[in-house]
Design a protein that fits this description.
membrane; 2 helices; 78% helix; transmembrane; elongated; mainly alpha; transmembrane helix
Length: 68
Amino acid sequence: MSEKTTNPLLPIAIVVSLPVLACLVLMLTDQGIERALLWSAIKIGLVLIVIGGALSFAASRLAEKSGR
């Protein structure tokens, strides 16, 4: 039988995304939070995720090159 391998980042993504989603729901349902602030926080978060992904990708490429 062949064992099914999963992406090791999936459990980490789930653990990280649960608190983020909980905070997002709270921010969307709370009447005292200004919507412009919420959308700015979401945009900044997405930009930081993209930058972090790009840095991680670059670091993995550098590690691959130095390992040869």
